[in-house]
């Protein structure tokens, strides 16, 4: 049985890790558990057009903002080969994958998490249509969402945290029932209201191509002198975060979150070969955030991804004052003074 020509569309958000994933084994399985906020405004929209064909080679083309983007195709081909054993119909259709991001092109915000999540959801949605009765439930079940997260993980590890929201855990953790190395799961414990609409303003310090990719960075955690301690530390930090998310102790939250960001970058600096992804402006911003906190008693803090950009996290009640601080003091350290105002979001939506 085959579907006639048609299309599926999904919008998936980006996510920002609070406890970081850095180091993997096997088929994109994490060496430690991680936890993230799903974002709201930074997302990828993907429409997958499909047309039945006779089985044979994979056939697909990728378009970014309406223009053919052949440079994405080897990555998608690799992804298709990797997931073929879980999605049986990939060779039976010709695909046209149209994708666009809400954030500026090459802003240094990785589109791999939101992009791989949206693509995985399109594929699982197609599978859902293949197997469901006409007139059946159109939305994806919990098991189907789990499968989509599993597939997204095979595209890009942290993408498995970009399907649901507002807080997602990936990687087995003894205190979090149902947590898995295979897919992301919704964080089910109680969360204090201060975190319900937590703000994330992303300062675009450097838009350039990173000198060292995340996949090489993960690789370098094999035989890393501090690997074992780092993986343990991530687990402890997640344990410490559980009561903090519940009681809303933002002072404690800041300590965990900033320490995680700097520990991630410390792993890069102590790899062999070693590397630094922060830029002088990254450090300037971190110092100014610390000074601002000291002077004003603000609860603003930072986190970092594998790059030079800074994610500025703060409670919604401080939005006016922190955005004022960012535009008057911090944006001068961004490329073209650019930053993205975002906040915690609720996950992917079918379009
Ligand atoms: O998903 P990857 O392989 O691009 O790795 C991303 C890892 C970090 O963004 C640095 C941390 C994380 O947990 O998101």
TrEMBL record:
Keywords: ATP-binding, Lipid biosynthesis, Lipid metabolism, Lyase, Nucleotide-binding
Superkingdom assignment: Bacteria
SUPFAM superfamilies: GHMP Kinase, C-terminal domain, Ribosomal protein S5 domain 2-like
Pfam families: MDD_C, MVD-like_N
Mvd1 C-terminal domain sequence ranges: 202-332
Molecular function per GO: ATP binding; carboxy-lyase activity
GO biological process: isoprenoid biosynthetic process
Domain Diphosphomevalonate decarboxylase-like N-terminal: 13-172
PANTHER family (alphabetical): DIPHOSPHOMEVALONATE DECARBOXYLASE (PTHR10977)
Protein name, as recorded: Diphosphomevalonate decarboxylase
Species of origin: Aequorivita xiaoshiensis
Phylogenetic lineage: Bacteria, Pseudomonadati, Bacteroidota, Flavobacteriia, Flavobacteriales
């Amino acid at each position: 049985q085959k579907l006639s020509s048609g299309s599926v569309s999904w919008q998936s958000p980006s996510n920002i890790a609070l406890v970081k994933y850095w180091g993997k084994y096997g088929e994109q399985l994490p060496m430690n558990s991680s936890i993230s906020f799903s974002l709201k405004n930074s997302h990828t929209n993907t429409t997958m057009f499909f047309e039945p064909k006779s089985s044979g080679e994979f056939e697909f083309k990728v378009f970014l903002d309406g223009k053919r983007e052949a440079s994405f195709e080897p990555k998608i081909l690799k992804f298709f080969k990797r997931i073929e054993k879980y999605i049986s119909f990939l060779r039976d259709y010709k695909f046209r994958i149209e994708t666009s991001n809400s954030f500026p092109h090459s802003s240094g915000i990785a589109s791999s998490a939101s992009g791989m999540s949206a693509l995985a959801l399109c594929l699982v949605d197609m599978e859902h249509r293949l197997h469901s009765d006409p007139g059946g439930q159109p939305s994806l079940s919990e098991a189907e969402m789990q499968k989509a997260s599993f597939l997204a993980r095979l595209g890009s590890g942290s993408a498995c945290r970009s399907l649901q929201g507002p807080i997602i855990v990936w990687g087995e953790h003894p205190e979090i029932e149902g947590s898995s190395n295979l897919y992301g799961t919704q964080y089910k414990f109680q969360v204090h209201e201060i975190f319900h609409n937590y703000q994330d303003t992303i300062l675009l310090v450097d838009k350039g191509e990173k000198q060292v990719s995340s996949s090489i960075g993960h690789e370098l955690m094999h035989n890393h002198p501090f690997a074992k301690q780092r993986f343990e530390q991530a687990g402890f930090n997640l344990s410490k975060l559980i009561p903090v998310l519940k009681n809303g102790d933002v002072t404690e939250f800041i300590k965990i979150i900033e320490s995680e960001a700097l520990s991630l970058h410390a792993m890069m600096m102590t790899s062999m070969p070693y590397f630094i992804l922060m830029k002088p402006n990254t450090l300037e911003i971190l110092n100014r955030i610390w000074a601002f906190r000291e002077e004003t008693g603000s609860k603003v803090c930072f986190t970092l991804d594998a790059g030079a950009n800074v994610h500025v996290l703060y409670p919604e009640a401080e939005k006016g004052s922190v955005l004022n601080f960012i535009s008057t003091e911090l944006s001068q350290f961004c490329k073209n003074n650019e930053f993205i105002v975002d906040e915690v979001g609720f996950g992917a939506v079918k379009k």
